[in-house]
């Protein structure tokens, strides 16, 4: 492999690493935003805890509640 090819290969690997790090950070930020939205919806009553829904359906025994 020539030096030019090796340099190009290193750039590709470096770019993939950078992409992976950016992708992981975006996933983390998406998770944080989702967690905040769920907390807010629970506080405002827009959604109910899963346990309440399970009880409403009468599935306490099936779900171990």
Structural features, described:
This protein has 65 residues and is mostly helical. The protein has one domain. The chain is 83% helix and 0% strand. It contains 3 helices and no strands. It has helices at 3-44, 50-57, 60-63. The chain is elongated and about 70 Å long. The termini are far apart. 0% of the residues are buried. The model has no long low-confidence stretch (mean pLDDT 80).
Topology at a glance:
Layout: H1 3-44, H2 50-57, H3 60-63
Structure described in brief:
Helix content is 83%, strand content 0%. The protein has three helices and no strands. It has helices spanning 3-44, 50-57, 60-63.
Oligomer: single chain
- End-to-end Cα distance, whole Å, is 63 Å
Described by strand count, sense and barrel closure, the largest sheet is: none
Taken together, the total number of domains comes to 1
* Low-pLDDT sequence parts: none
Give the C-alpha Rg: 23 Å
Overall mean pLDDT: 80
Tally of extended strands? 0
List SSEs in N-to-C order. HHH
**Helix/sheet category:** mainly alpha
Strand content: under 5%
The tally of helices reads: 3
